[in-house]
Amino acid sequence: MRLELRGITKRFGAFTANDAIDLVVEPGQIHAILGENGAGKSTLMNVLYGLYTPEEGEIVVDGVPRTFAGPGDAMAAGIGMVHQHFMLVPVFTVAENVVLGQEPMARGLIDAGSAATVVRETAESLGFHIDPNALVGDLPVGVQQRVEIVKALSRKAELLILDEPTAVLTPQETDELIEIMRTLAASGTSILFITHKLREIRAVADTITIIRHGRVVGTAEPTTPETELASLMVGRSVSLGVDRAPAQPGEPGLAVRGLVVRDAHGVPVVDDVSFDVARGEIVAVAGVQGNGQTELVEAILGVTTPEHGSIELAGRPIDGLGVRDRLDAGLAFIPEDRSTDGVVGEFSIVENLVLDRVGAAPVSRGGALDVAYLRRNAAERVAEFDVRTTSIDREVGTLSGGNQQKVVLARELSRDLSVLVASQPTRGVDVGSIEFLHRRIVAERDKGAAVLIVSTELDEVLALGDRIAVMCGGRLVGIVPGGVSRDVLGLMMTGMPPEEAARQAAEHHTLLGEADLAAELQAPDGEPAVVQDGAVVQDAAVVQDASHESEEQR
Length: 554
Ligand SMILES: Nc1ncnc2c1ncn2[C@@H]1O[C@H](COP(=O)(O)OP(=O)(O)OP(=O)(O)O)[C@@H](O)[C@H]1O
Prior knowledge:
Blueprint: E1 3-12, E2 15-25, E3 30-35, H1 41-48, E4 56-61, E5 64-66, H2 71-76, E6 79-82, H3 94-99, H4 112-125, H5 141-154, E7 159-163, H6 171-186, E8 190-194, H7 198-204, E9 207-212, E10 215-220, H8 226-234, E11 252-262, E12 268-278, E13 282-286, H9 293-301, E14 308-313, E15 316-317, H10 323-328, E16 331-334, H11 338-342, H12 349-352, E17 364-365, E18 368-369, H13 371-384, H14 401-412, E19 419-423, H15 431-446, E20 450-455, H16 458-464, E21 467-472, E22 475-481, H17 486-492, H18 498-507, H19 511-520, E23 529-532, E24 535-539, H20 540-553
The structure holds adenosine-5'-triphosphate.
Adenosine-5'-triphosphate binds next to strand 2, helix 1 and helix 14.
InterPro entries: AAA+_ATPase, ABC_carbohydrate_import_ATPase, ABC_transporter-like_ATP-bd, ABC_transporter-like_CS, P-loop_NTPase
Subcellular location: Cell membrane
GO molecular function: ATP binding; ATP hydrolysis activity
């Protein structure tokens, strides 16, 4: 399928989120859309998937202009979407989920046999296996994502929209998804790929369209260096990675001793975890989502009571204290799910910036809110943290995802804090803003805070961690120095002890590990090198020329 978006304009009131966007996606093309937070990527994808009606412009599929009144129309035109939050029913089997919504309504019966065949055959054509009879709720996230892909393909999708698909995957699973994307593209399926991860774009995209302030500002090749892509995206030069002095660990900041937390079924989800974070250092906890990190953080914050163990803040046990007392004792907290724990969507930016400080100075004076202070505070924080908004009075729920996250960070990093616990602090935030936010977190460390970062992003863990703790299955697999390789961390995330991970990583590089190495080993003419099995075999220019030659020969 050849898709053309012609002059798509989508407005929210007076605000133009998409401004005359033109985009062409060729059959079998992997087309990455890159843009900073609030650039208008999700809006454009929602227009394409029939969720928003554009004010102007045309969606043209194989030369025919189409109007989509809803996702059903988009699907009928061959467009499928894998959302960030999967739309599967956990208590149904894979086969049931795949046919859900497409079984003949008259009978209301699901033909289990043929659904299972569709699942098996589609999966096999993409080079993996899925048990059609497995319950979706029992499957790891990476496999659930494949079920979503199979589901879209079973509806004859010829163009797949993948919205930040790797946010929930391990590096190894990301490699596997990249392989699946390549297989799909080779069979003619087009892919629109949204991600903030430049490394992935360079690994998989055929072409890149860059959107800024709702407009297409350019296209780029996947060979474009990461720093250049980042600058194109934000419209200024960006330095990736944080320059920082080595940590100066001091007094005890946070201490966790023999912590055990059980879930509702009595299964230990945090299993005898002990570690220390000194003031003046950052410990980053790496791991695939769902390996006990959430429960660990909840126990530190005081929203759950552990079965065993104790937690100390600056040498003082806090086990008996409630959440508010812990915050008052100098704990700052950035929750992993901003929409449920971080912001109140219906409240304004002004209100969200002081949520839990109402009643205390300087937010309240003499029993009343100090409105002048609140407005001044909001204007300053919005400017400092580069929250893209038309007004400080706007409801936070209408900001783009990345900008909502900046509001949470602006509030929490402006506290008087001695211990900072941050879960996925930059999830969904673009590289330009990540640079700033990471610098702010390091600045808190250098002011003497003990910082615990929980992140599923290896880039983030590596950028911030003075030491890196890896969790798997509720246990602490090991704590390693900050400079460790991505491959070692990826293997430890599967539960492999550090020594074994180091040995295996030396023997086998992941695809993205290779991209890493290639970026470091730039050929003299500036072209990235091609790395196989950990060794440079060719520079990319030569490989491209060779492929042209063979095409011509054929
Ligand atoms: N329902 C809405 N009402 C008002 N404004 C909106 C609405 N949805 C989006 N916007 C605005 O449109 C702009 C584009 O938002 P969009 O979600 O498309 O950005 P994005 O590129 O996907 O950003 P991110 O990377 O942060 O997810 C933002 O400024 C956002 O505040």
